[in-house]
Design a protein that fits this description.
heterodimer, A: about 270 residues, B: about 400 residues, alpha/beta, Rossmann fold, Coagulation Factor XIII, Chain A, domain 1, 2 domains, six-stranded mixed sheet, globular
Chain lengths: ~270, ~400
């Protein structure tokens, strides 16, 4: 059983595995890291066309308060990028043990490092994408510089949340190879159940009471809301939001670590 | 393993009552759907790979695990390396351990040799600083200085293995676990490996070796543990245990197949094969450099014109070492009838330490008709003698070294 101390002692391994993920991801591709940015841009173009042009959403619904910003594409990206981190981290983390079966079967090291390295590589992608988005936001008049530290804190909390889920999925995928199909479906539902391509106000118009409460309990709606608060609206997320986010992140990490510990012993033989 | 006597080294690996079971599933691929429909995971049978194994490995010794496939020797090694977790029992390891189960584990083909050295090094437990310090040495040992910034996918398999071995060996562990990796790479590389292992042993490192090559085990190990069906059958002094193992393997073969295959028309037969020492006594244990005689006893049930006797010697791994016959030696009797024997006298046996099999044949002059053929009928061991060589191989050339300085070169 790998102890916390052992995990800490493996910092260099974590860093090197993360670098492997990052360097390997876009080696031998024409645009290199450009692909990382192209994907959210394409999604933004599509969703902007559909929701802002064809369906003609009321600009008031995506007006930032107090920033006053009214650009649907930026409104969308502020939520889409954190969502992509969750989606990529869950999918990538899920494959991190199966994809490194050879390593797990031949060398001993704390296995959670493989999952953590994969999630870290997606966190790094998020950092780059948010930096580019930040420049765009600045260009359109959102003075986000003072808010950046808060954005980093949000990223750290979300990373914990994603890592916890990824740890569970990684072992689950070793024991049951059809986990990936299930995750694909869950991600679809989760995406549309989160106010990413539509504003939260739209849901508030149609849902009320317990149904609305349930909707808002979705951790990703709270994450997305907080990111938008900090980057788009330029205001401090409510203490309740912070508290909730920290709680779900901690919960996810504890569950993830417990499940992983419980099943890691047989990994080398089940792979 | 022998319990340490008060004056021997301290145990660095202590295995206490280790049991390991593997699950053999009825269906190959587990699916969530099937598990939910059934209400639980797939049915499985258990296979007992290790059954309450206990042993100690003393500091600075080289220990070999031998046994047939499925005897549990690799499982035990993986348990010690912490890759597998025992179901019961305890393994205590004192010191930094490194397992050479696969060379270049985790190499990423698209990354350069340099990047992979850091990656592989950290997988094997080195910090970035430690790799920095050893980097030049690693690259030089692998002989890849010119190619270190080339992507690993462009390496030949030899280069790949060399780099992997170089990183692994520079981890500088207190305890090195090795599983058959010595059998990779070309001759030159194998020699390099052997030299490095000799150096590690000289530096007092503890080495645990799993191998099918009894020659290598006999040569490198002081202690040998013989595993059978997940239990220790015998352990102790290397020569002694390997001898016992070879004897039992040999007997086992006798019982099942009657000493390897035998075929022929049997108008004349080879009724016995013997290996005689210098005094003419039958033996199965000789040393390099010994005077030996291989004797084939024959019985011809009818007169056989111009017969040819032959012997062949193979290693346990199947390498054909030599295959002399009487015809090529110019010894062709007009005919044989009745009983007799043929001797192949070897003044100096040039086989290096290992275990070998003798096959014997009796054929007609054109080598078209087999009267009798015994495949791998006689097994014998060669122990270290003179010439004394410890860097592997099958035969000694029996050559003579000389170093002479050129005149006028200072």
């Amino acid at each position: 059983m790998s102890s916390v101390g052992e995990v800490l002692a493996s910092r260099d391994l974590w860093l090197n595995l993360t670098l492997r993920e990052l360097r390997g991801k876009y080696k031998r591709s024409f645009l290199g890291w450009g692909w990382s940015l192209l994907n959210p841009l394409a999604m933004t173009a599509i969703f902007t066309l559909v929701f802002s042009v064809l369906l003609k959403q009321d600009p008031a619904s995506f007006t930032g308060r107090p920033s006053g910003m009214k650009i649907f594409a930026l409104f969308l990206l502020c939520a889409l990028l954190p969502w992509n981190f969750l989606s990529n981290g869950m999918t990538g983390g899920m494959y991190s043990l199966v994809g490194n079966a050879n390593l797990v079967k031949k060398v001993y090291f704390p296995r959670e490092i493989l999952v953590a390295a994969n999630v870290a590589s997606w966190l790094f992608s998020l950092l780059i994408e948010l930096a580019v988005l930040g420049v765009a936001l600045l260009g359109f008049g959102n003075m986000i510089l003072p808010w950046l530290p808060l954005a980093l804190v949000l990223m750290a909390i979300e990373a914990g949340f994603v890592l916890g889920i990824a740890l569970v999925l990684a072992v689950l995928n070793v024991y049951f190879r059809d986990t990936q199909h299930l995750v694909g479906i869950v991600l679809q539902i989760w995406f549309y159940g989160t106010p990413i391509i539509y504003p939260l106000s739209l849901v508030q118009q149609h849902l009320s009471g317990a149904a609305l409460k349930l909707y808002e309990l979705n951790p990703m709606s709270q994450f997305v809301k907080a990111y938008r608060n900090v980057l788009y609206d330029l205001r401090f997320p409510s203490p309740a939001t912070w508290g909730y986010l920290i709680a779900v992140s901690a919960f996810s990490l504890v569950v993830g670590a417990t499940v992983f510990r419980r099943f890691e012993g047989r990994l080398a033989e089940e792979l | 393993m022998a319990r340490p006597t008060p004056d021997s080294g301290r145990p660095v690996i202590i295995v206490e009552g280790v049991t390991k079971r593997f699950r053999l599933y009825d269906e190959r691929n587990q699916s969530l759907k099937a598990a939910i429909m059934r209400g639980r995971r797939a049915r499985y049978e258990e296979f007992l790979a290790l059954d309450e194994v206990s042993l100690e490995v003393l500091e600075g010794t080289t220990v070999g695990f031998i046994g047939e496939n499925g005897s549990g020797k690799s499982t035990l090694l993986k348990c010690i390396a912490r890759i597998l977790r025992p179901d019961a029992g305890r393994i205590t390891v004192d010191g930094k351990i490194s397992a050479l189960l696969e060379l270049g584990a985790g190499f990423h083909p698209e990354l350069s040799g340099r990047e992979n050295v850091y990656l592989n090094g950290s997988i094997l437990g080195l910090s970035t600083k430690e790799i920095d310090r050893r980097f030049d040495e690693i690259v030089e040992f692998a002989g890849l200085t010119r190619f270190i910034d080339t992507a690993v996918k462009n390496y030949s398999s030899g280069m790949y293995v060399r780099l992997g071995f170089s990183v692994a060996i520079h981890v500088d562990p207190d305890i090195l676990l090795v599983d058959e990796v010595l059998a990779v790479g070309d001759e030159q590389f194998q020699t390099k490996c052997s030299e490095k292992f000799a150096e590690l042993r000289a530096n007092g490192k503890t080495i645990v070796l799993v191998s099918h090559s009894l020659g290598a085990v006999r040569q490198m190990c002081e202690q040998v543990v013989w595993l059978e069906h997940g239990r220790i059958r015998e352990s102790g002094d290397a020569g002694h245990v390997v001898d016992a193992y070879v004897r039992v393997m040999h007997e086992g073969r006798d019982e099942t197949s009657g000493r390897g295959a035998r075929w022929g028309s049997h108008e004349a037969e080879i009724v016995a094969i013997e290996l005689l020492d210098a005094h003419g006594n039958p033996t199965a244990n000789v040393r390099t450099g010994d005077h030996v005689t291989i004797r084939l006893h024959y019985r011809a049930h009818e007169p056989i014109p111009r017969p040819v006797f032959g012997v062949a010697i193979h290693t346990l791994e199947g390498v054909h070492v030599t295959g002399p016959n009487t015809r090529e030696a110019g010894l062709v009797p007009e005919k044989i009838a009745g009983a007799g024997h043929v001797d192949l006298e070897v003044g100096r046996l040039m086989l290096l330490p290992g275990t070998y099999d003798i096959s014997a044949s009796l054929v007609d002059h054109a080598a078209l008709h087999f009267f009798d053929y015994h495949q791998r009928a006689y097994r014998f061991d060669v122990g270290p003698g003179t010439p004394h060589e410890t860097f592997g191989g099958v035969v000694s050339l029996g050559g003579t070294w000389a170093i002479r300085s050129e005149e006028g070169s200072g």
